[in-house]
Queue: 3 jobs
Job 1
Amino acid sequence: MKDLFGKAMYDFQTNNSPEDIITETSISEEDEMSVEYLFRSYDEMPKIEQKALQLATGKTLDVGCGAGSHSLSLQNDRNLDVTSIDISEKAIETCKLRGLKNAIVENILDFEGEKFDTIILLMNGTGIFGKLENCNMYLSKLKSLLNPNGQILIDSSDIIYMFDEDEDGGKWIPSETEYYGELTFTISYKGEKEETFYWLYLDYNTLQNAAIANGLKCELVMEGEHYDYLARLSI
């Protein structure tokens, strides 16, 4: 991977002529995303993200931390002990420049040695699962990192609304063999194109079933204004 997302964040943090990130998915046209959005303060965050940060307690792991905005809020506003991980080296450099005390380049599947009271995965936290078939692998790993009374706070969206309805109100889904929330994602930045990657949007019922299959309790904490939701998983 060229780490274009990380480069964009690093450019913004270091005032190196940042540009918008161009995103495109298998079911949507090219769209521009301002890098500044990744640097938002708590007050600028959607209510679902604010709720997740309010519910976080104790030793916390922020998975896929990006530019570190959620971690910074927990570290600075709530005084929590936060570990922030991301596969992007430039993202982690950005986090350190912003003042995060414990930011590490790491894939969650390789992370070991510590247990947490709270694990957060926000901004479509299920995205990193990539495909539906990977849910068990990721949920099992996340569960292994929880303290006995710990919690996983994760958000996603049911993107069924993006598919066309037929005359009797049914939804036209591209393929019966694939889950409709499995997308391929491509991002471009400053004229460079990233390798295409898988990104998973999970409807709540599917997440709940996967959680139960992995010995996790699943609660719907909050629903957003656009088919999005926050869930809390616990042992």
Note: The two ends are 34 Å apart (CA to CA).
Job 2
Amino acid sequence: MTRSDNIVLALSPIDEDLKLAFTVDCVIFGYDNDDLKVLTIECNMDPFMGMISLLGDFITQDEDADSAAKRILKYCTGNEDIFLEEVKSFSKPDRHPFGRVITIAFYSLVPISLTKLTDSADKHLKWVSVDEITEMAFDHKEILDNCLYQLRKSLREKPIGFELLPKKFSLKQLQTLYEVVLGIELDKRNFRRKLRSLNILIDLEERQQEVSHRPAKLYKFDEHSFEKKSSDGLKFEI
């Protein structure tokens, strides 16, 4: 193979006009009061001044995309142990007013009731119901829609819904979460039958407290059991 046949060896120094910038944008999903929300910030950049946008930043020279996304999550919540999944890149030439900027989108999941925004981030950020968002700055609505699609797909295939709930939850709370995120109504008996067949919940032998209705039994996700069953071929399908 000659040099001209090998595109890798034939690369020449990058022309200044072809240089790109890379960012990450994080769709931080939260769940609270039977509502799926996303953490937003008000854009301060023309021509999107005042519109809501996602949380994002440029990837620095000494980090990869995952590290940049985790840095953003830590800045917002002070926590590094948060579910995070890469979705896709967005690269339309005119997507950013700064010039040629390609972004890599991630989504993460947090229970709002258990998440305290850091003091440095709290006054700038706002939880907004996903159903209320019709437009966003940049191409962030497109990014949000893609991440929501991926969340719904993954929710049926992996036990990631537990990331949005308190550690202790009722079966009704779990079913409501699935119905809200997926935007569908589930049959109660079929849903619980499926959960029993998976056998990945621990009955805590506790009941809800300080509720206006009959207190329901509380459960927690048995992550250790699921990992073992998964390695033995168990498929999580809801």
Note: The CA atoms of residues 207 and 217 lie 4 Å apart.
Job 3
Amino acid sequence: MQLECFIFGVITFLITGAQCEEFEVLAHAGSQAVLPCKCSYSFPITPVIIWSNAKKGTVWRKQKSGLQFWGSSWLQKGIQRAQCPHFKFEKGDYSLQINNVQEEDGGIYTCRVEHGVLVTETVVTLRIIKVSFVPSVAIRGEDVSIRCDVTPKPNGATVQWMLNYSPFVPQNAVSSTSISSQSVMFQTARVKLAGIWTCVFSYKGKEERVSANLTVKGIIQPSEDNAKVYAAVGSAVTLPCVYSPGLNPANPTWEKLKPEYIFKPVPDRLPASFSASSPSSQQPWDKSASLKEVGFEDAGRYRCSGTIKGQRLSQNMQLVTAKINSTIPSKKKGSVTLTCQLSDTSEVTDYEWVHVVYDYNGTKSIGSIQKGKTLSISKESEENRGEWTCRFYGKEGILGNVTHHIQLMGGLSGQKSSGVSRNTAAIVSLSFLLLVLLLVLAQMYKNHQRRKRIFQYPALETIVHTISNEREERERNRVKK
């Protein structure tokens, strides 16, 4: 091409004084491309300007009279995609601007400037770079091809890939760095592959970066297989299983896997407190499960599954349970040793004990903080009352915590003695009242029996009343004297 242009330039220059130049322009699909066409000299009046494409013919033409013509293929929704800024004509700049360039716009363009016998030609090769995915939206687990297409194809160009603005080195993938094969890379769709893919295209000392966003749908929480979920014994926990918004999996299931079958998982019995629906589940794509009360034996691997577009998707997670063991050393009866125990400590790097105290108003305050998996404290010391929380940490921060309550021995003894005293006083009072009641009942019974015997003899009753009346009269007379 360069040789042909050189020969054509020499011949036309000798005959008409024409000149020929060549340029390469790189642009990504959807952007604006500027094709250069500049003359080193200016004309008193606007010359004839003709922009043409090797395949589509005339792109834009301006006559001496000022009339302009556009090719029909460059009209998009009533707007011309190709134009030349008139305010630059006085400077000898006749560059062509193409808006929203497409793959089919790639090719060879010619700018011809005619001013009498003076003719200047500029040849521009426009290459369109586009990043695409097949399929455009990938389902997790299926194969996806990542393409960096360049139209027209160059020779000697190289391509490098970046994912989320960091260099990407494919693992267990078929890829190509030669643009001659359109730089196709095959990957198995994973959540980690979702994001902004950038094709770094290098050609003849120039570099162009083109990006596109890849969406991977499937189970997005947890984002990694065998992710760990930490829970304290006795608490409630949610096992996440969230699909991409808009996905409604068919036949969702939950399973607990036996620990001895690692390579070929075998279902185990689910815990008694297991519920296949989480209280937080409000959307059809949220299939999280919950355990209302975690037991230490509930630790292990769990798997959620569902069918999307005929493909069975599954995600494994591991429930790690935590508890605090309390032991009393044989040599120190007044002390207690607390041990933070986890069903899996593979991710734990550090332990921390935090003392939490509540006053009579319920105000919370943080006391001492100590390091280590075990903690030895005195149960008889008032300073150690309240809650002791064991926090366990990993490389990226806190993983979880579990709490143990400490009650004072002295406080318990005092409460017991006080309770016994109150019970004794209540028993004595009740016994006294019962005794008085028995005496009253006995006296009432005696009076009843005496009256019963007297009423059996009416004459005797009359005599008794007469004697009683006479006695009362004598008493009154004595008082008068």
Note: Residues 52 and 171 are 45 Å apart (CA to CA).
